[in-house]
Structure formats: structure tokens, C-alpha cells
Amino acid sequence: MNADRLFDTMREQVKAAVPKDLELIRIGFEASLVVLYVRNFDKFAEDTALPRKIAQEIHRRVDIRPDPSTLAAPDEVEKNIRELVPKAAEITDINFLDNTGEAIVEAVHPSEVKGDKGEKLAALKAKTGWNVKVIRSPPIPSKTISDVRGYIRTYSDERHKMLEKVARNLVRPTLGGEQWARVTALGGYRQVGRSASLLTTRDSKVLIDCGMDPGSDATPYFNIPEASIADLDAVVITHAHLDHCGTLPALFKYGYEGPVYCTEPTRDLMALLQLDNIKLGYGEAKNNVYDAKDVRKEILHTIVLKYNETTDIAPGIRLTLYNAGHILGSSIAHFHIGDGLHNIAFSGDTKFEKTWLFNPATNRFPRCETLVCESTYGGYKDIQPSRKEASEDLGGYIQAAVRSGGKILIPVFAVGRSQEVMLVIEELERTGAIPPLPVYLDGMIWEATAIHTAYPEYLNTRLRTKIFQKGENPFLSDIFRRVETADMRETICHDPDSCIVLATSGMMSGGPVMEYFREWADDKRNWLLFVGYQSENSIGRTIQRGRTEITLPYRGRSIDLKIRMQMETVDGFSGHSDRKQLMKFIGTMSPRPQKVIIVHGEERKCADLSSSIYKKLNIQAVVPYNLETVRLR
Fold first, then answer.
1. CA spacing 20 to 30 A to 161: which of 178, 203, 400, 572?
2. Which of 383, 246, 435, 261 has the alpha carbon at shortest distance from 334?
3. Do residues 186 and 227 lie in contact, with contact meaning Cβ atoms separated by under 8 Å?
4. Predicted TM-score (pTM) above 0.90
5. How many Cβ atoms are within 10 Å of 142's Cβ, its own excluded?
């Protein structure tokens, strides 16, 4: 049966499932979503349960929208919305999409627009006749979020066509015969960097992550026959770090036209990091593998999912994203293959511990026969101190630096570690554990933090309570100051007073952190504090091992630098699970997997973790090489 006939059959199912008095004008299909355009939208707008009822009947996600021909003028509707919504909502913008009948309200406090149980939002829909939706405005303005949302609105017609194309692909004719599934290692196996896995079934191909190696710029193995870009049904991105998404825009450059699935924060953060990667490439005279127009196309093709929301992404494959506890919006990608054939979860990077930012990673699934698990800290001796110990250590080093009249430089990744360190320093200063100091944020940290403020629902329970119920947002503390210009950076470098600087990049492979390091390295009063993972060949790892002299590029020439500043590593800030947490994550997983595939770790650590899983948990564990394939069924 071809797609058109399948759509006709589904339309008949929908018509049978909707109430008789629903004036149905048209039925559309957008990816896995069935869209009902109705003439009397206002009559059913307050019945929030109706889409769920219809969805249960037809086994597809459903959205009910007003027929565009019935819509009132946007100017009049905007006036009504602003009159009806309490001022406490702090509306920042309202945008209208005529082709979908959506009125997108951006507000600092979305709950004031929605109501406790969505009753205010339903009333707005009924009174305006538009499908009113609300999204959060960041309390710290974010250029990235503004650009991403604006681009999607501007090119809504192109996006609509893409979604229709995805819908047709989901119902395309498939082959008969024996079902099977396998995973091919395209990158990130027995290494940290360029993560990419190809999930292949009898009918479909899905790429999980599409990273780059930040140390060498190596990309996944797309030059093998089974990894043809033209054959991909979908791409799933677990989180926004470049070692998991840094090559993704290149797929669009070379012809990929399909969807990308991830959480909403991941979409925004990966756009931020990818665009910055282009900028760094130009600055270092590298040949970038993609440019900004490819990132924009990626944005247009991204379909965002909430945690625990299940959707069809390819014939015979359903995806659910679960919290991974690693960075904002990071997810464990769970795939249900076939009619119960096999279930596999890709952990991405996980943290199985409640942190200052996030709840611990989820390890409860409806079914899961195979787990693909990271092993960054999977070595026998990779035991991290507690968050409390890490906080105390950081505070102690800051106090020592202040006593000597020195400055503190902390290399950080813009996303994840920066925000955790910010929370700890804010608490140390607020409680008087360290003296009041300015904390300068240099690089992308400010913009990444602004994106964090837009999605507090992805933060841990304690932090959400603090922000939503107590009105206390530690990210908005006045101790944090954005470094906006080179002149400001120069002033900070030569200011005689103590201060704390958080600067990118986290492995000291370039970026603003090197400006401060060059100025402060030869003064023994200053401190360099590592709080994140340093890869084997990075400058950060070289310094961490105790180098006293180093040669660095500077303005087209090489300079020799003596390192006299104090250097310490503050363990406990990592967004990765340590050895104990990895074993506990797998050992308490429900249901217990039958097989674990070890990825994302140095070769020795992969092998070490694999051996322990087999010996202590009696679970089959394998450590593939890049380019190997593991059959699941």
C-alpha cells in the first residue's frame, strides 16, 4: 500500500474517532503528528483531553488547530491576549503563524499564561480563536534562542514541507521477511570524541549522535557503504557537546534532508556551539567542514521532544528521550524496534547522581534488552569525590589564592561545568565561605547560561523550587559579570585585585582562557584550577601533568612561557558518572539489560568496565572497535 492510500485510511480512522459536532475541514500529517484543522476551534479549545482521546483511538499523536480561514486579525488578537493575560506573566513578544493558526506568546512567567492546569491557556484559545501556545522568555536575554525561534517562524512554510515529507517517509512501503537489528560503530568506540552510532533494522537506518573529535577535528566514518547519508531516516542527538553533535551540520551540507530529534535545550545549545566552532575555525585558519547556512538548515529540520515523550521516527522504530543528568537537555535515547522485536538505549553521556544542576540519570525503562553505555570514567581507579567535597576543595583553593593576593583562572566548557561552578561559587560567596569577589564569565558562558535560564524545568527539583516558588535564581546574582570586549579582558588581566575568571575552552585548546593564562602563568600568586575532563592530547592535560614550560602560538608566532602559577585539579564537578556510579547505573537498571555495549572511553577504561560488568553483574559486555557491527537480533 502506498503512502497516499495509507493516509486516506488514517483519515477515515480519524473521522470515525472525532466527535460528530467537530467541524473538521482538513486532516494533515506532520512527521508523526496528525493535525486536525477545524472550523469551530473555539468550541473545543477548552477540552484539553480531546486530542488525547483521539490519539488513543488512532494510536498517533494529535494536534487540533483552527482552520486558517476562520482566524481573526492578529492585531486584534494580540490586543485581546495582552488584556486577558495578567501583567505578572511579563509578556515579551507575541508572534502569529497564519498557516498553522498558532499564536506564540513569549513570557518570562509562562505559568501565568497557562494557569495551574492549563485552564487560562484553554480560555485564551476559546476567546481568540487562535491556537495559543506559550514559551518561556529567558530572564537573561539570549541571542541564540531569539535567532533560533525567529528563524523557525520566518521559514515556517519550508519547515511544514519538511514535516510532511517526514510523515510520508514514516508510512512508506517496507520489506517483508525476517526482522533484525544491529549497531555499527562509526565513532567514539574505544575513544572519547566523534561519537556516532548507526542503528540499522530491516526497514530503517537511524544515526545516533554525529560528533567530532575536538582534539584532532576527526569526524565519524561516513565513507563506508552502510553509512550512506542518503539512506538515513533520522538523526538523534543525545546532547549538545561537540563530540556528540559537532559534525551534524555537515550532513546537511552533503545532502541530508531528514529530521533531527533532540530536546529543545539541546537544539539551542548545539546551534550555539556549532556556530562558535565555525568562528574558531576561521580564527585558526582551519578548513571548516560546514558553515552557518548548514547550521540554519539543521535548525529547520530539528524536531524537539520532551523527556518521556514517545514518537515514531522511522518505519518500525519509536524513540523516547529520558533525562541523562549530564548537561542541560541531555538525554538517554531509547528505541523500541519493530513490534516488540528489540529495545535498546543509548546512554549518551550520563551522570547517575543528583548534581547542583540536574536530577540523576533515569535508569527505568518499559523494556531494554541492550544498553550502549559510556565509560569516560570507567577505569578501576576512577572514583570521584562527592559534590560536597568538591565544593569545599574549590572554596579552599579560592581562599588560598586571595590570601596571596592572586587571581583564580578556571578553564571550563561553556555548557554544563560553567553553570555548576557558578552555582557553587555563588553559594560560597553568599554563605561567607569565601570573601566577596567578582566572577568574570568569558567566552560563550554568558550566552549558555542565558539558555539555562530559559529552561528551568530541565533543572533539578531543588533548583526548580528555588526559582519557581522562592523567586531566587542564582544565575542572576550580581557577582557574575560578562566579559564583552577585548579591552575589558585586558583590564581584568592587569587589575591588581583578586578575582575569579571562568573562561573557555575547557581543555585549553584555544579561546579566551589562553589570554588570561599567558598573562598570569608566570606569577606564583595566581591559581589555575581544572574542574573538567582533559583529553589525552590536549594542552590542558599537558599542563595538568606538571609542565613548567610550554610553547604556545601567539599572533602568528610561537612564544615560550614559564608556568609558575599554582595548579590544582578539583575532581567532583564532572558531568560523567564515575566508576561506582556507572556500575550502580547498570546494576540497578530496570529491567536489567541482557547486553551492554561499551563506548566513549579510552581503550583501557572500556575494557576494564566491560570486564567488571561481566564478572560482577553477570551481564554480557562487549567493547567494539570503530567500524565493527554488533547484531542485536
1. 203
2. 261
3. yes
4. yes
5. 23
